[in-house]
């Protein structure tokens, strides 16, 4: 040991003396410092190898080791005794360790013998626990698969029964709860493939059912529109019946009948009918077969599929195309035959849309329905304008107007605006009435042409009711005995029926057209019918087809009856127009057939004058220079009076008193003119007082005839008839007057001779001769005294000639 220490002590100084190189010395110091500080020697090693001097590094390390050996020796020397003690302790410790090791070995053997069975049990427990966990996982997976399969089975069952909504709900449940958690990859892939296919199948199936519904709903809409419009028509008919009953009650009240009038209050079932339509839209077995279930089903399914907006667009486009198709008017079928189907289809369409809008939960909006309705109104107006412009028959136009107004009433219940349609109807009001007037003109001409102008014979009470009472032509409330001979011919009831039909057609066209007060319009066209059409036709028939007195008398009688009928026409128009009777009476005008009435009376008067002229020819047989005045009148006047009395006895049966009075007054005036004309004419060269006295008797007989009509006329009217003979009476009175020059006195002339023409007075007065005047008698009386009357007459003649 000492030799070793000596060697190491020699090595250490040798190494210190060995480095002449300061760089190596510096490196050695750094390495020593790093080792003393327990630093990483990696950088020194990398540097040595990088510079290619590993030997130098190794030399430095060895040098450091030798330097530390000396330190160790010094430490060992300093702690040698302690070290010896430590070694002894260590030896004893090793002995204890061996003992402990033996004890541990024995304990380990004991523990091993005891723990092996427990470990085996633990392994069995762990294995059983793992098996239990696996079985639980398997059971859970099986339960999940069973629930999944049950959902799949339920979905298949719903699909087979077309319960698509529940099938989709099953699909949603499978996707939401099972697809991501399913343990079977194969089953998961199958579901991921089949679920989209099933949804696609459901969409196609529902779309097909919806397409079938679209086809079916067109037929249903047409039937629905027809039924709805038919119900509106029935409601309108009931309203008309109630109005008729009300008018009958008012008429009976107006006539002050004592019988009480009772009427049943009929239930207004308009709401019931609307309820039937509503009920039809909710169930398959609705009153009208109006089933929206396929539509609701399709909409609900598409909502469930998340395709709500697409279905809304699809529905709206298809319904719009259907509506456009409904607008097509067939050129092969007359519009008169197809208009009900055309309008019923559109009405049904919008009844269905109204129901869908209010019950589908947003499938179609109110704005979209209004846009469709505006399109439909525009198209219907265009069709009506076109069709009305082609029509030349009033009844056809009225039929279409009535149906359009019913369409308006029907759809107004559902909140649709129909003013534009009513405006089109009002626009063609004038054309309709012109066509109606044309039809009535033809009917009236045919009725007049078929009439023989003979009194109408009625054998049964129903004929009297149909031809007299229905037009209020009766003059008494007492029903006559049958057979009954009416004072008018068949023209009167025929024309009354034509005019009444005109009024009813006119009111029918104006009713339900949006205008409440339309009596003035109806009255305007009624005035035209009476004053233009009927009056013109009567004037034409009077001027061309009336040839005998009996026919002329019958026409005049007809005119008197038609005057009463005209009052009925305006009252009837007022009643149908809903105007109070007092308002009708207030707006009445003069008799619209005055021209025909005057022409008929003129015709009768003219024929009677012609007949009278045949008797007045006998005035030529009068002895104008008679020695004695005739006691019983001249022959002509007796013949005229016999004819007039025969005429009156016949005419009073059919002619009203006023008409007969006017005619007789005209005839008597004509007779008066003929008498004065005979004196004034060239046929009579001269006459004496006896002849004038005879004319005085004739005029008295005619005046007596007028007075004898007191049973027909009042005294005042009989006196007015006598004034028709005023010219003849005044001329006779002047010629028989002792002071004829009084004619020159204006006061006396105005009072007693106001109808005489002074020129006629001069000419006739010049023809008057004294009774003693004979041919050549002037020679025997030249020196005699002049007659004062003759002198007065000469003065009158002279003064009148001077005035002329």
TrEMBL record:
By its UniProt entry, which InterPro entries does this protein fall under? Answer: EXOC6/Sec15, EXOC6/Sec15_C, EXOC6/Sec15_C_dom1, EXOC6_Sec15_N, EXOC6PINT-1/Sec15/Tip20_C_dom2
Q: Which residue stretches, if any, does this entry annotate as coiled coil?
A: none
| Exocyst complex component EXOC6/Sec15 N-terminal domain span | 60-229
Gene3D superfamilies assigned: Dsl1p vesicle tethering complex, Tip20p subunit, domain D (1.20.58.670), Exocyst complex subunit Sec15 C-terminal domain, N-terminal subdomain (1.10.357.30)
Report domain Exocyst complex subunit EXOC6/Sec15 C-terminal positions. 421-767
List the subcellular locations.
Cytoplasm, Cytosol
| UniProt KW Cytoplasm keyword | yes
Keyword Ribonucleoprotein set for record? no
Q: List the record's Gene Ontology CC terms alphabetically.
A: cytosol; exocyst; membrane
Q: Which UniProt keywords apply?
A: Cytoplasm, Exocytosis, Transport
Its predominant location is: cytoplasm
Q: What's a GO biological-process term for it?
A: pollen tube growth
A Pfam entry, by short name: Sec15_C
Q: What does the function comment of this entry state?
A: Component of the exocyst complex involved in the docking of exocytic vesicles with fusion sites on the plasma membrane during regulated or polarized secretion. Involved in polarized cell growth and organ morphogenesis. During cytokinesis, involved in cell plate initiation, cell plate maturation and formation of new primary cell wall.
Please state which protein family the record places this protein in: Belongs to the SEC15 family.
This protein is called: Exocyst complex component
Organism of origin is Punica granatum
């Amino acid at each position: 040991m000492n030799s070793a220490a000596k060697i190491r002590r020699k090595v250490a100084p040798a190494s210190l003396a060995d480095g002449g190189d300061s760089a190596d010395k510096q490196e050695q110091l750094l390495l020593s410092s790093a080792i003393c500080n327990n630093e990483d020697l990696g950088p020194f090693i990398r540097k040595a190898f990088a510079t290619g001097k590993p030997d130098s590094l190794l030399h430095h390390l060895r040098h450091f080791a030798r330097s530390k050996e000396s330190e160790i020796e010094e430490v060992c020397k300093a702690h040698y005794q302690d070290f010896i003690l430590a070694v002894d302790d260590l030896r004893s410790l090793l002995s204890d360790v061996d003992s402990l090791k033996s004890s541990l070995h024995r304990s380990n053997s004991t523990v091993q013998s005891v723990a092996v069975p427990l470990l085996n049990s633990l392994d069995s427990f762990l294995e059983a626990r793992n098996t239990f966990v696996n079985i639980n996982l398997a059971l859970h997976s099986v339960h999940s698969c069973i629930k999944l399969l049950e959902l799949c089975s339920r979905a298949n069952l719903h699909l087979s029964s077309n319960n698509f909504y529940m099938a989709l709900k099953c699909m949603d449940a499978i996707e939401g709860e099972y697809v991501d958690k399913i343990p079977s990859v194969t089953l998961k892939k199958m579901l991921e493939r089949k679920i989209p296919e099933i949804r696609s199948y459901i969409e196609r199936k529902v779309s097909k059912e919806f397409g079938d519904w679209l086809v079916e709903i067109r037929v249903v809409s047409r039937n629905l529109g027809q039924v709805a419009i038919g119900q509106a028509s029935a409601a309108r008919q009931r309203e008309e019946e109630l109005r008729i009953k009300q008018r009958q009650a008012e008429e009976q009240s107006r006539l002050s009948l004592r019988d009480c009038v009772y009427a049943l209050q009929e239930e207004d079932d308009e709401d019931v009918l609307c309820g039937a339509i509503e009920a039809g839209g909710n169930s398959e077995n609705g009153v009208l077969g109006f089933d929206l279930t396929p539509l609701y089903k399709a909409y609900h399914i598409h909502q469930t599929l998340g395709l709500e907006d697409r279905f809304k667009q699809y529905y709206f486009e298809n319904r719009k195309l259907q509506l456009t198709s409904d607008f097509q008017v067939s050129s092969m079928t007359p519009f008169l035959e197809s208009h009900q189907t055309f309008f019923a289809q559109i009405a049904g369409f919008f009844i269905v849309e109204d129901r869908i809008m209010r019950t589908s939960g947003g499938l179609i909006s109110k704005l979209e329905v209004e846009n469709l309705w505006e399109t439909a109104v525009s198209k219907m107006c265009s069709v009506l304008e076109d069709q009305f412009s082609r029509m030349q028959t009033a009844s056809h136009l009225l039929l279409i107007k009535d149906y359009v107004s019913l369409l308006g009433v029907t759809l107004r219940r559902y909140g649709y605006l129909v003013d534009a349609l009513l405006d089109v109807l009002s626009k063609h009001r004038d054309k309709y009435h012109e066509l109606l007037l044309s039809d009535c003109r033809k009917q009236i001409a045919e009725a007049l042409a078929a009439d023989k102008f003979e009194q109408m014979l009625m054998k049964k009470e129903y004929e009297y009711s149909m031809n007299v009472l229905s037009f209020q032509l009766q003059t008494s409330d007492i029903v006559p005995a049958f057979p009954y001979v009416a004072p008018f011919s068949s023209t009167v009831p025929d024309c009354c029926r034509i005019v009444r039909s005109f009024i009813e057609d006119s009111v029918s066209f104006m009713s339900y057209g949006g205008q409440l007060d339309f009596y003035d319009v109806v009255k305007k066209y009624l005035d035209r019918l009476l004053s233009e059409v009927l009056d013109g036709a009567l004037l034409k028939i009077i001027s061309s087809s009336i040839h005998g007195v009996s026919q002329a008398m019958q026409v005049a009688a007809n005119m008197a009856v038609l005057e009463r009928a005209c009052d009925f026409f305006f009252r009837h128009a007022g009643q149908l127009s809903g105007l109070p009777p007092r308002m009708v009476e207030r707006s009445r005008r003069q008799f619209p057939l005055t021209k025909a009435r005057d022409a008929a009376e003129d015709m009768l008067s003219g024929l009677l004058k012609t007949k009278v002229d045949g008797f007045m020819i006998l005035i030529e047989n009068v002895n104008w220079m008679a020695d004695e005045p005739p006691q019983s009148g001249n022959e002509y006047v007796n013949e005229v009076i016999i004819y007039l009395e025969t005429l009156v006895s016949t005419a009073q049966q059919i002619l009203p008193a006023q008409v007969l009075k006017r005619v007789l007054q005209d005839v008597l005036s004509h007779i008066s003119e003929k008498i004065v004309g005979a004196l004034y004419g060239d046929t009579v060269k001269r006459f004496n007082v006896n002849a004038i006295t005879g004319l005085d008797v004739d005029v008295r007989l005619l005046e007596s005839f007028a007075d004898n009509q007191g049973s027909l006329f009042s005294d005042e009217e009989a006196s007015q008839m006598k004034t028709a003979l005023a010219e003849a009476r005044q001329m006779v009175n002047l010629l028989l007057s002792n002071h004829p020059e009084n004619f020159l006195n204006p006061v006396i002339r105005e009072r007693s001779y106001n109808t005489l023409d002074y020129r006629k007075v001069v000419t006739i007065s010049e023809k008057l001769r004294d009774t003693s005047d004979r041919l050549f008698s002037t020679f025997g009386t030249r020196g005699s005294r002049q007659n004062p009357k003759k002198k007065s007459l000469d003065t009158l003649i002279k003064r009148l000639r001077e005035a002329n």
